[in-house]
Amino acid sequence: MEKSAQNNKQKNFLKEVVTGDISNHHKKYLGTTIPEGYFEKSKLSILDKIKEETTISETSIEVKKQKVFWLQPKVRYVAAASLVFILSLTIWLQKANNNTLDDYGIELLSFNDDVLVNSLFLDDDELDAYASTTVINEIVIKAELSEQKMDDLILDSMILDDTLSDNTFIESLIL
């Protein structure tokens, strides 16, 4: 190695014309020797490795296809997309059913069209009396309806609670 370090400082290594054997020239400037039959052995080992790779690649040409239909990627993607669609549709339909309470609240605040049309044909003197009776009637009717709905709801919840805890309540209703 010392000799190669000394010769690296010289710029004429590649510029000199090689006379004689290249291996002698190599020994002279680098200070290392090439083992006997090195190139022949390396050539044979490279050829052996290439032969092994070609035989391996020739035997592995047979690609096994997936026989199970469900394991193919296209089927998995379609199944995942349909699952997401079904879940989103379920959530959307649940939110659509929640609007019934808002409609009920609007119904309580609105008057019938007949009442409004009839009020147009009244004189100003009769209008105050008609409005007060109409409002009272509307309020009383709607209060009665909401009270009936509330009673039905309470009765349904009582029946449900009693049926979950004991069957005697249903038997007493039937008898």
3D architecture notes:
The chain is mainly alpha-helical and 175 residues long. The chain has 3 domains: 2-59, no CATH class; 70-101; 111-175, no CATH class. 74% of the residues lie in helices and 0% in strands. It contains 8 helices and no strands. The longest helix is centred in the C-terminal third of the chain and has 42 residues, at 124-165. The radius of gyration is 50 Å and the shape is elongated. It starts with a helix and ends with a helix. The model has no long low-confidence stretch (mean pLDDT 73).
Key phrases:
175 residues; 74% helix; 0% strand; membrane; transmembrane; 3 domains; 8 helices; transmembrane helix; mainly alpha
Give the topology:
Elements: H1 2-8, H2 22-30, H3 38-59, H4 73-97, H5 100-109, H6 113-120, H7 124-165, H8 168-174
What's the domain count?
3
Q: How would a crystallographer describe the biggest sheet?
A: none
**Count of DSSP H/I helices:** 8
What share of residues is helical? over 70%
Portion in strands: under 5%
> What's the gyration radius in Å?
50 Å
* SSE sequence, one letter per element: HHHHHHHH
Please give the alpha-carbon distance between the first and last residues. Answer: 114 Å
Could you name the ranges where pLDDT drops below 50 across 5 or more consecutive residues? none
Q: Tally of extended strands?
A: 0
**Shape category:** elongated
> What structural category do the secondary elements indicate?
mainly alpha
User: What number is the mean pLDDT?
Assistant: 73
Transmembrane segments: 75-93
Keywords: Membrane, Transmembrane, Transmembrane helix
